[in-house]
Design goal:
The structure is a homotetramer of 255-residue chains.
Chain A: E1 3-13, H1 14-18, H2 25-31, E2 44-49, E3 56-60, H3 68-76, E4 78-86, E5 102-104, E6 107-115, H4 118-126, H5 142-151, H6 159-176, E7 183-190, E8 194-201, E9 210-214, E10 217-221, E11 231-232, E12 237-242, E13 248-251
Antiparallel strand pairs in A: 1-4, 1-10, 2-3, 2-4, 5-6, 6-7, 7-8, 8-12, 9-10, 9-11, 12-13
Helix pairs in contact in A: 4-5, 4-6, 5-6
């Protein structure tokens, strides 16, 4: 299981949310060293928006706990919108190209979950990526495939519909492929303005996902990283928040 | 332009052919530091056959000149058949998954050359890979695609025909895609018994390829690495050699 | 805590002892993913002796569980004497130069344990390395320092005395530095002929160390990796074994 | 020979000076691919000051030309003071710990040049590092050693005197060690406010170093990267510039 954190609001240094909290994302990778939880040591990445429309991205294959570059960047970069991910591989080797977040133009995406039986279904699922977007396919992960499929279904205009359509097509490919394994999807997408966090699973066993308003904005995280008033993102829902606006939570269903 | 070396014969330590010669493969990457030739610093790899039917493989993203593991392995490993490659990227980022040699079962393949306009044609060319082999697709390079396409055309039974068929399909995809850029192909393939070296280009401008018999066996190389009696592999031909047998050179043409 | 395995005997493929056993070294790094034990994800390394007097070495910073090169090498290399290590950093960043095993000429060394307060004592302990050996200092770990100090105290002639002398000097430096933290030392050293495994700690809390005779030879390991008849290397002792000879266990004490 | 660039002035995006210019630092690493100049492919690094007193740092072992993280960071980070370096190894293996710039507190340092015979003199030169700063020694390069020696000679109060004192001690160690090889030193140091660029060599053969005022501030570079009005930093001199002030060039001599 991967772990992720995302934030939108007034600009904050990344370390305030990713490193300093008592159960920060980096310490969530560290935690495993003390055998308190699972390891997320198959690479890490951050993406952020500051002054340019396209996000900056740093991705590496070292575990977050030993990545000095990651720590230095989090200490220096202040952003109004950012996303961070630590990976625990389900499919796709440990490689920069398989590290989240993924980007396309001004869009950024990261995912925690899995496409059941993806090793066998990959061919068909790759086939769902639009021709025009196929050149952006850098790695072999199911997560990147879902992102690029959604990009071809209108992420610019109606992202919730685009993600829904992508997941429906992947679900159909899974049914066609005869798998009974689930499709599980906790994910964050942003176009640099609006942040959306999805939580859904074909078998109802959704990856965990929480959110919380802090003084400066809104945070989404796979698990609470401090003792604040975190709320679960309900199963089968999508959370939407733009800077300065209230969080909206709506039903999210995939047929 | 990548550079490659392959050997079959009595077992020799890899360093005898890859490191010690005056213009060795490793020094060919080093050479660039003295501005004598191009750089091949986008990763390196070796594959070898010793006691097991499947080849061993080491691949890394550091330039050969700075890869201490590569040097140690070459110093220790003695093999009857091996292949080495230093990469200069044409398409596909610097990543282990894009480093040669590529393997599938007991087969090993490495390539120097290019599929013209591959960035735009990749979708269609990936589509030529047989479904059953698609799970072996690890990276995004044109070279790996050609190998996997050929694997689906009978590399076990008639490798020359399989490679011909693969290149014909790729050529057709290039024509269909409207590119006028060339397909260039210097490559080494082996099934662990027979070594084959191909030299062909759609525009006649084949990447360089040489061969030489040494005391213990036969060597193929992108460029001569010592002052021995190297011969060019003729354009439009395939060289075939099995341990203990004489080298055969036959015409190789792609429609 | 790091983990290590060493073997001497009739040549065996490394994967037989490092990958295939139910609780193999590689799975010991993997194990953490299932929260059964601590993580050892700060790099890995193997060293082996085959035909040449100096050992071959492969070291990398990826966790063993995700290092495809490590797996391929273990599958291909057959050796009469080898050592493997997975690292959990105590001091010294995650870097190839801090990965075990360390080598000097035909000697190979790996360590599980720590020099208490090493961050503060490093200067003085580095100072114990003989001038002639200082050029071999590649990293910043306490383990490499101990090895190089011992190398300067006669590893060629009387290795047990050399290691004793090195640890006594390190202990003295620790006392001089005013630390009350312990010096703990489970280690393997070999000159390519004789394998020695040490288990000692200044506070009696020795890192675990086991050994076992198998059909082809003798194995030493931080923890049993199968259900065989493992015996503890007693605290305060050194195990000595050469190919074809019986294991000797003698008292090992540091003043 | 390494290559470096530094800037102080009004905040600019790093890519404006490091990537977009026709002969940018990144293209200087790339240039070698076209055999026009030497390769600087042994790692790269950037350091920058933005809102916090300590610099941010990114360092990696890939050649600049293939480091996607480096490119993304340069595109996103806007800084009033920054430094960039591409490495061509003279001593010290390719490792993050040997990549420039080096940092200590708010200080940042990078170097192009060499300590002649450093492999043999390293012990004595390391000995010149003050005890209190020795814990900051991460790698094995001569450049990092010079920086840490200077840090112990008053970089906070009188940096030119501190660098002079460090180089005099290193020169003395070289004489004591009996080497006749030169000490060559083109370097950039900053405390986050004032940028200093040094150019000196014991044999007069100084590494190249240029500077230029641009619209927003002042740039120092190993070689001109555009067609602007670059001036040489004279041999045996130090250039000093603080944001908003005029460049001063003074004599710099080492006994």
């Amino acid at each position: 299981m991967c772990r992720l954190v995302a934030y939108t609001g007034a600009p904050v240094f990344l370390d305030e949310l990713l490193i300093r909290p008592p159960a920060s994302l980096v310490s969530q990778s560290l935690a495993a060293r003390e055998a308190k939880t699972v390891v997320n040591g198959d690479g890490c990445g951050i993406g952020w928006y500051h002054e340019r429309p396209q996000p900056g991205v740093y991705r590496g294959t070292l575990p977050a706990w030993s990545d000095a570059n990651l720590v230095s960047l989090c200490t220096q970069i202040r952003a109004r919108l950012f996303a961070a991910h630590i990976r625990s591989e389900t499919f796709g080797e440990v490689a920069t190209a398989n590290c989240h977040p993924f980007t396309a133009g001004r869009h950024l995406f990261m995912h925690n979950g899995q496409v059941g039986d993806y090793a066998h279904l990959r061919r068909g699922i790759d086939g769902l990526i639009d021709d025009s977007l196929y050149p952006l396919r850098r790695g072999t992960s199911d997560s990147e495939a879902i992102f690029l499929i959604a990009m071809g279904r209108g992420m610019d205009h109606d992202p919730v519909q685009a993600v829904t359509s992508a997941l429906e097509s992947v679900s159909q490919a899974m049914r066609d492929g005869g798998t009974t394994k689930p499709l599980r999807f906790a994910a964050v997408h942003t176009d640099g303005e609006t942040l959306r966090a999805y939580r859904w699973a074909s078998d109802g066993l959704c990856p965990s996902l929480y959110w919380r308003n802090i003084e400066t904005g809104t945070v989404v995280a796979s698990e609470p990283f401090d003792t604040g008033a975190w709320e679960e993102v309900p199963r089968g829902s999508v959370l939407t928040v733009s800077a300065g606006e209230a969080v909206r939570i709506e039903r999210f269903a995939v047929d």
